What does this fold into?
Amino acid sequence: MTLARTRPLTVAPPDTLADVSFDEAMEARIEEILAKYPTRQAALLPLLWLCQDRWGWISPGVMRAVAARLDLAPAHVAGVVTFYTMYQTTPPGKYLLQVCTTLSCQLCGTSGLAEHLREKLGIGFGETTPDGRFTLLDVQCLGACGEAPVIQVNNDYYTGMTPEKLDELLDGLQ
Amino acid sequence: MKPILLRARGEENSRSINTYLRLGGYAALKRALIMDPADVREEVKNSGLRGRGGAGFPAGVKWGFVPQSTTRPRYLICNADESEPGTFKDREIIHTEPHMLLEGIIIASYAIGANTAYIYIRGEFWTEAEILERAIAEACRKKYLGKDILRTGFDIDIHVHRGAGAYICGEETALIESIEGKRGQPRLKPPFPAVVGLFGCPTVVNNVETLACVPHIIEHGAEWFAGIGRDVRNSGPKLYGVSGHVEKPGVYELPMGTTFREIIYEHAGGIRGGKKLKAFIPGGSSCPVLPADRVDIPADFDSVAEAGSMLGSGGIIVMDETVDMVWALENLLTFYAHESCGQCTPCREGSDWALDIVRRIRAGHGQPRDLEALERISRHASQGMTICPLGDAFCGPIASFLKHFRHEFEDYIARAEPLPPKKLPVLPVRSDRGPFGI
Ligand SMILES: Cc1cc2nc3c(=O)[nH]c(=O)nc-3n(C[C@H](O)[C@H](O)[C@H](O)COP(=O)(O)O)c2cc1C
Ligand code: SF4
Ligand code: FES
It folds into this structure.
């Protein structure tokens, strides 16, 4: 049995995201989102999430489309996207390996994991493997410190990580 | 004490509404809905319930600040941002019995007259957001949520709003900005959210654990709740999250005021590998660190404050004798320098500057005056010098690490080698123009 239970991200190449439009399914979701709030602007974070789920990252073209859909200034949208660390503004790999580097995890051996990942993948934090499979990120406390060290891969947490478990995990992420 | 908030931990299907109903869930809601909202507020006030999100403000008193005569909508926000390092208790509640949280939210909304509530959950908690969405759908189907719930005429909707990676959005006014679709930058207070909050309307923000206590208070009464713990100012069950160098890290539910010794040595199994305790951070990373000899104090709001720190969120970070305290402070400052929202100069510049200094000390290039500089920064970026308490959050660690472990910093500095003299960059000279382009 493999440890990995994470599905790869769908990552749209930059040239396909220069100009985007929302399909019917997305429009339906947008209407649902808008119904939750008294202002259109409040739908911004949820709509950005919807876009990132769909395309893997937020390109300038996506920002423009979101701004137009919610009647917001493109600069406002860009300001919000860049304020929050989880919105990806460049195309990531299929798997975002996010290593918690805050105190409780560090006390339980994060640096060994980070070293191991760097050696194994040949990339540092903030970089993507040439085959586009993995992006390695250092992140701050993930709110699961009791199960340190913690790594988040896309939407899933993997806790109590050791180099051996990491190897098994990476092998399972195809 | 029999667990209350985590009573269903380990049970099969503990998240389903049927299990919750079997355990007596939603009975408190039925009781609350036939009470006058003012009586619900009074009951919570009398229980002594203090906010579990960090500041320990009495929940019932906060609810009382909401103007009752207003025609504007009122909002309740559940703070599930859980972003303070060392804190991981709210996630446990959501994983164990999400309906307990929903019931608390509905009762609190009724008490303040809100018909819409938002759960603001950190973006990384994708699984937990799904759990909540599923629980909300179940509760809607059984008519605990929606229009005219339980045929009482009371309407209440709960929406989940996901954050996107920013510690500062745990701060209540930054959180409000974030729901409104903006960057999470804290607002100046006053006005307080209870008067001008979400979408300009009266708003109460409460932590997950605070709200999860509410159904139990309504069901068993204020007196029962106040009887758990040290006194009415430090009452109720408390979730302590223990992480770092202990044998059994995890969340432990114990009466408020259990001593740190009991929590660390009995429940969390003691220090890992039989080592000695060096220090612990009592309530999440922004609370001042305490040395091992304070381990006998009770873990409640007032006792920890008397000892010069804060109970905060109850996330206890344990460090054994091998930990280099200069390294530990550098790690914490890395976090705060990264998370400062950048609005206030003392916080934006101070957190970076302090990090630079501590890095330099650890790299073996510290100077005696560095410690004074650190102390100066920690004085000038805290205690009301900034818009929000993030200033205090990084200054508390600086001041306390220097207070209790100053010798470790001094040792580094005593062994330090001076930095090679800096070569000043030569500025390009533009001879065609004088100053101001004249
Ligand atoms: C920088 C900062 C971060 C905070 N993070 C959180 C958090 O993650 N969760 C939380 O419940 N409260 C957090 N708070 C406290 C909130 O501002 C607010 O006081 C709390 O949610 C109120 O709920 P309570 O009264 O039930 O404790 C934070 C405060 C500050 C200044
Ligand atoms: S204290 Fe720091 S985090 Fe808080 S508002 Fe000012 S700059 Fe932002
Ligand atoms: S320190 Fe890593 S999850 Fe909190």
Remarks:
- The two ends of chain A are 15 Å apart (CA to CA).
- The first helix of chain A runs from residue 24 to 34.
- The interface with chain B takes residues 36-39, 41-46, 48-49, 70, 72, 76, 79-80, 83-87, 101-104, 106-108, 139-148, 152, 155-157 of chain A (CB under 8 Å).
- Chain A has two domains: 14-83, 95-173.
